[in-house]
From TrEMBL:
Official protein name in the record: MarR family transcriptional regulator
InterPro entries: HTH_MarR-typ (IPR000835), MarR/SlyA-like (IPR039422), WH-like_DNA-bd_sf (IPR036388), WH_DNA-bd_sf (IPR036390)
Domain of life: Bacteria
Domain HTH marR-type stretches: 17-149
Length: 153
């Protein structure tokens, strides 16, 4: 029953390396470093990889939607899309059919590059979540969603 009690809020005098925010950032930095290393071998960055993953699941997403989903600005998202297009991994129409959106789609080369790197990226995530007892993983994922939602309000 003690698990349902609210956690003691961090105090300024406490060791900052034990604060939730610090530990989340440490985990994120470790994940990003591991992904950077694997993706570099395939000529991709984390935002490029994330964009390929999203376009495989949701073909035709706009730059604005992709930028939001990959946690970059629209300007940075446009740079990512241009790089992927120049590499022949995605296609986008030269002009917008309506409005300003230019829907992006993976090319055959984009699907192949994504397939070539997915197993390595998924192995990193598996290594990370493998450190958590399986019976606690669902609760952790729920808690992380709750934490993000609390800050997005």
């Amino acid at each position: 029953m003690k698990e349902n009690l609210p956690a003691e809020p961090p105090r300024v005098t406490q060791d900052v390396t034990r604060h939730v925010g610090y530990l989340l950032k440490r985990a994120q930095a470790a994940l990003r470093g591991a992904m950077d290393k694997v993706l570099r071998e395939h000529g991709l960055t984390v935002p490029q990889y994330a964009t390929l993953e999203l376009l495989a699941m949701h073909p035709g997403m706009s730059n604005a939607d992709l930028a939001r989903a990959t946690f970059v600005t629209r300007q940075s998202g446009n740079v990512v899309l241009r790089g992927l297009q120049e590499a022949g991994l995605i296609t986008r129409p030269a002009t917008a059919g309506h409005g300003r959106a230019r829907p992006a789609h993976l090319t055959g080369a984009g699907h192949a590059r994504l397939a070539a790197v997915q197993a390595a990226v998924y192995a990193i995530e598996q290594r990370m979540v493998g450190a958590i007892p399986p019976q606690r993983l669902a609760a952790l994922l729920t808690d992380l969603d709750r934490m993000a939602a609390a800050l997005e309000e």
